[in-house]
Amino acid sequence: MCDRILVMVKGKIVKALDRADFSQEALLYWATSTEVPLKTIKAESSEKQVSRSRTKGFSFSKFLKRWGTIAGMVLLFIACGIAAPHFLAPSNLFNVLKQGSVLALIALGLTIALISGGFDMSVGALSQLTSNLSAGLVAGGLATSLTLLTGGLVGLGVGALNAFFVVLLRMPPFVATLGTMFALMGATLAYNKGQSFTLADKPEFFTMGQGYIGPIPIILVIVVALVMVLLLFLKRTRPGLHMYAVGGNPQAAVVRGLNKSASIVLSFMLGGLIVGLSGVILTSYSYGASAVPASLDFLISALAAAFLGTTFNRAGQLDVLGTVVAAIFIAAINNRLILNGVSNLVLPGIQGLILVLSIIPGVIRKKGIGQVTIF
Question: What is the mean pLDDT of residues 99-120?
């Protein structure tokens, strides 16, 4: 019914299409254009203006916006190696990969919840609960496979509980999962009675967290396999794509006919499953479970990894692969600081700073198109 269509990106007209040029492909192409928006468009000269915008030279501001965080991470990593050559020693790098893999598992569970627009404050507390629970079960002689099954079922149960609060009781995810977090912290203290679990002579169980396949840590292999499965699920299946759609624009997803509630339930349960299993693997990595409350530390680290991982995505989306890379980077920074004698008590503050810095680019990007999402 139109004689002319103006395509806008970030509030600016980027293309004027006459009736003869109408097509779904053309509209989608210009609607997703990353070219510099044109100040004015005239029907006679629009093609020339777009062509000039494509041939513009290097723009430092565009480079900084797209690659600034990644470049900063690379430079910081190089600086760590120059300041302490033993930081780049193969033995230390493999140790960093193991440390990052433990964090990545928890961060992946949180990322799944965030993708559908949810928020899970309980991931740190859940991982510590299943860590203590698995330590007690293994110490009692339970097989590794059954211990993993128990951790996964506990995680699924907690995820289902969070989904019940959010979907059926319509509680804000932040409030609902905050309450779950405190409940899980209390359950952990009730279970371990303030005492740490130390395990020994459990070679089969320790293989998950401390074993190697050649020079490669088995825990890294587990993370890589999990990421491949999650990428396939999120990018190639209807439920996974629906989770992204619901998280990106809940109103549009409902209008499109998607089941918003089902996507939220799935995200909480899948995230809970991953975090529940991560607690078991954490016990294997640590040769036991600590009684020191570390739920908030785990949560801050996972949040920092999830949001820092969005900087690897051109669209600024939450991405499981970016989360893993960011988790390993955070582990590398922590490792370098510890080598310099920095106390573990300072690390959460540094991770909090990384979290704030990683959120800023996303806020600026969304503010540029009039959308700022506050979790």
Answer: 92
DSSP 8-state assignment for residue 21: G
Closest Cα partner for 222 from 204, 233, 210? 210
Judging by beta carbons within 10 Å of its beta carbon (0-12, 13-18, 19+), is residue 318 exposed, middle or buried? buried
Q: From CA 297, how far away is CA 319, in angstroms rounded? A: 22
Structural domains of the chain, with CATH: 4-54 (no CATH), 71-368 (1.10.3470)
**Both structure tokens of 226:** 């999990």
Task: Record the tokens describing residue 334, joined without a space.
Answer: 């922590």
Q: What is d(CA 61, CA 54) in angstroms, rounded to the nearest whole number?
A: 16
Reference 110, options 359, 349, 324; nearest CA is 324
Residues in the chain: 375
Cα gap 215→90, rounded to integer Å: 9
How far apart (Å, rounded) are the C-alpha atoms in residues 273 and 155? 5
- Pair 119, 113: CB distance under 8 Å: yes
| Bridge partners (DSSP) listed for residue 289 | 197
Task: Measure the CA–CA gap between 296 and 123, rounded to whole angstroms.
Answer: 9
Q: Are 318 and 114 in contact (CB under 8 A)?
A: yes
159-193: pLDDT as tens digits: 999 999 999 999 999 999 999 999 999 999 999 98
The reply to whether the predicted model has a pTM over 0.70 is yes
Phi then psi dihedrals of residue 8, to 5 deg: -115, 140
